[in-house]
Amino acid sequence: MENNEIWNSEEEQWFVKSFHETLSRLYAKEASHLVRERYPRRECALKTLLNFSS
Question: Domain of life here (predicted)?
């Protein structure tokens, strides 16, 4: 395997890992925003989050 092939493989692995981590954070942020927007009171937001987890 040439150096370029090794670099590409490591670079691709890093990109995929970073992409998945970023996507997870964005989904969590969006879900949090939607809950706050729909249920502004803390009690309602907590009930909604508990319903999502079950």
Answer: Bacteria
